[in-house]
Amino acid sequence: MRIGLWVGFGLMGIMLLLLMIQVDRQWQRMTDMTRIMQEQSEDIRRTRGLLRDLEQTVRSGQFQVAGETAREVATGTPDAFDRARRALDQPDYASGDWLMLAFGTGLRTITPLVSSDAYASEVQNYVLESLIARDPDTLEWRGLIAEDWQVSEDGKTITFRLRRDVSFSDGMALTAHDVQFTFDFIMNEVIAAPRDRAYLSRIERVTALDDHTVEFFFAEPYFNSLQLAGGMSVLPAHFYSRYLDDPRTFNESRGLLLGSGPYRLANPETWTPDQGRVELERNPRYWGPVDPPFDRIVWRVIENDSARLTTFRNQDIDLYGARPREYQRLLDDEALMARSHHFEYMSPTAGYAYIAWNQERAGQPTRFADPRVRQAMTLMTDVDRIMDEVMLGYAERAVSPFSPRSPQHDPANMPIPFDLERARALLAEAGYADRNGDGILQGPDGRNFEFELTFFQDNEDTRRMVLFLRDLYARAGVVMRPRPTEWSVMLENLRQKDFDAITLGWTSGIEIDIFQMFHSTQTMEGGDNFMSYRNPELDRLIDAARAEVDEDARMKLWREAERILVEDQPYTFLFRRHTLAFVDKRIANIENTALGLNLMAVPVEVYVPQAVQRRR
């Protein structure tokens, strides 16, 4: 009897548990349906408002202008969706499935302006949009939010005319007032956006002339004015304006992300780093002429290289960036190659790795404030051996911030060769000598030449490079202590300038502006000149180059600036990596473009054919 009674109680418990699960699922479905119905109701209301605006436009006699705009678009005024349209024409094109990616480190924040790393920018690229975008084939500017634009004869004013059908993912219309708000929000000193403020500092004001026309005014000509104005990601005023009264909440936030792009966070306010992943859903209100193909885009945080490769082998992520040491082995893996595309190339916009020498700590100059010491450190850094033994030849030497294929680079500016004897001579000239015969150099203050080199702890190639350099520097009498560090801690160290030396990398572009990294005005906390480098002549050249609209004259200025950077070595410029990527073969329409691999291009132009879709 007792056994039967206990069995009965157990069955009742199981039934109650199953009932609770079912109720919870039904409740979740009801919540989702309620949210969808509310969104649809808001969409209907705003559509009615748009129709009223159109009616007023017709009555006011402006219909002809609107009609001309429509005809221009229909007859080939360039927009950014050409490649995405061509993808739609592929016979196996299908919508659906998830694009699964991975980050090699956790994200501290994905809030725009507050975030400072490439991983956060990758997420934001799908959520936020700018007025214009580059064509991946021709590199020409195409309209995105902007329908068209005009540049004044003196180059100081750019006027954009916006599309009328753009809305944010919550259904609110995007207008010129949001563009003006975005600029004003960034330039407000209470907002923790020193990097973006520095970037946009050439713009004097942004003015919404009406709901669909916005004007950017520059105090003086700027060589990159169209990219500067048109490339600014537009933030919704109705969402972010509340933080002007509460800037601390914004500045310390982790997941405040809302935009007009093809994807969105399910909740634009609740993402936190402890989730271990970032998940975007298709924006059901996306305004673009081509719907985004994937239902979701998901990034998992997988910090260990081997675990990331295993996850790719198991087809749980769709992209794996291989390290040079494993690349050839993976090419010989028949099972892996049977279901993977592979790409090996030097991206035209490849960034560069470097070691930054911190010249000031706690307001006091460090030993690296002496350019002879920085030059000596570069002379004793055998970059060619690093490329051969660590990168296995899948890299090229970086001379400066400028790509060797860019007209900003002067071929006369050569990389500094490995030369221990010259390094020792420069250090001796700077007052360093082995005063007690222990094999370690002492400076003019009598202290040993010792320093820590901070690096990201989960990158095996960087770890091998740092250990190699430790032994190499010791041959010159310099003690380097490796300091492996978590990514979030590294970012905080940069913000507070709390490091001796640090090795990192910058992304790059077609023509880059080095103001943020090397101009002396950017040495403030949170600025990108985090090594406190100052050179008045370089400042003058940067300022002059940024104001020069004649390309030939500007390139001469950039090349002179490059000469100073090669002489001063605020960084030891290391190398530019080849891309060594494996992509799951179910991802269709993958190709290399003038901007690099199109896997993460927006508008999205890759997809998964119906026959091989596996995620719902």
TrEMBL record:
Protein name: ABC transporter substrate-binding protein
PANTHER family according to UniProt: OLIGOPEPTIDE-BINDING PROTEIN APPA, PERIPLASMIC BINDING COMPONENT OF ABC TRANSPORTER
Keywords: Membrane, Signal, Transmembrane, Transmembrane helix, Transport
Location of the Solute-binding protein family domain: 142-509
Gene Ontology biological process terms, A to Z: peptide transport
InterPro entries recorded: Peptide/Ni-bd, SBP_5, SBP_5_CS, SBP_5_dom
PROSITE patterns, alphabetized: SBP_BACTERIAL_5
Record's GO cellular component terms: ATP-binding cassette (ABC) transporter complex; outer membrane-bounded periplasmic space
Chain segments annotated as transmembrane: 6-23
Source organism of the structure: Azoarcus taiwanensis
Keyword hit for Membrane: yes
UniProt similarity note: Belongs to the bacterial solute-binding protein 5 family.
GO molecular function: peptide transmembrane transporter activity
